[in-house]
Design brief:
This protein is of the alpha/beta class. It has a single domain (17-254), classed as Creatininase (Rossmann fold), CATH 3.40.50.10310. The protein has 6 helices and 4 strands; from the N terminus they run H-E-H-E-H-E-H-E-H-H. A 4-stranded parallel sheet has the order 2-1-3-4, with helices on both faces. The structure holds zinc ion. The site of zinc ion (ZN) has 5 residues, from helix 2.
């Protein structure tokens, strides 16, 4: 049976959904990913991980349903690279609120944003509350669980914890999912190593964050080291991601704010 909600006729869709249903909205991005990965990288990953994880969760008894992905989102950090199709924060904000309003009109009470692009994370945390307050849905947002900092520990090159864009993990993922779209002969390393020396300032998990656009780190559009990427490592990340998202959907289905 299909888990893609929009494959159903509207009356069947309403019958299929209940208070227990978990509706998953993948969010992609269409943005430059260096000279070696397709612009659709951040769309391919959440679409693939989402489809597999929803199947897995449904097989274990979670009434999980998938919406087609939103292809483009808040990729303004890649504005300097034509070919990036990016939305203003207000555009994606309004789009997600509209999805929330629409899902709230069905019997489903739970909406999950499965985010394929880090640039949306802060906005998603805010939109979770907006949709909760305005439409009463239980709202959640998460990544695909596939991003790891490259390092000797996982057989990759050292990215100093900064393999955030088109680097080791993302390139390996694409070698696993869509090798036909990857051109390793054009992969280049670009790691802003000097930033690793700051103790309080960094990309993720640091107490001080900073504004940036991807051209701040050089012309290649890469932040990380894709040169040692392998399909085998990508398969590991895919398995981890599917496992993580399926497990999270199980917890989300059981989650209630009050005991
Ligand atoms: Zn990406």
């Amino acid at each position: 049976m299909t888990r893609l909600l929009t494959d159903l006729p509207q009356p069947r869709l309403l019958e299929a959904l209940s208070e227990a249903s978990v509706v998953v909205q993948p969010i992609g991005a269409l943005e430059q990913h260096g000279p070696h990965l397709p612009v659709s990288t951040d769309l391919v990953i959440p679409e693939e991980i989402g489809a597999r994880a929803v199947e897995r969760a449904a097989a274990s008894g979670v009434d999980a349903w998938l919406l087609p992905p939103i292809a483009a989102s808040k990729s303004d950090e890649h504005h300097a690279y034509p070919g990036t199709i990016w939305m203003e924060a207000s555009t994606i904000w309004n789009t997600l609120v509209d999805v929330g309003r629409s899902v709230a009109a069905t019997p489903a009470r739970t909406l999950v944003f499965l985010n394929g692009h880090g640039g949306n994370s802060a906005l998603l945390q805010v939109v979770n509350r907006e949709i909760r307050r305005r439409f009463g849905l239980r709202t959640f947002s998460m990544g695909t669980g596939t991003q790891r900092a490259g390092g000797a520990a996982n057989g990759g090159p050292d990215e100093f914890g900064m393999g955030i864009h088109a680097g080791h993990s993302e390139t390996s993922l694409m070698l696993a999912l869509r090798p036909d779209l990857v051109d390793m002969s054009r992969a280049v390393r670009n790691v802003p190593e000097h930033i690793a020396a700051f103790e309080t300032i960094g990309f993720n998990g640091y107490p001080v964050s900073f504004g940036w656009t991807s051209d701040d780190f050089g012309a290649s559009g890469v932040v990380g080291d894709p040169t040692g990427a392998t399909a085998a490592y990508g398969e590991e990340l895919v398995a981890e991601g599917v496992d993580f998202v399926a497990r999270a959907l199980g917890e989300i289905a059981a989650f209630r704010h009050a005991a």
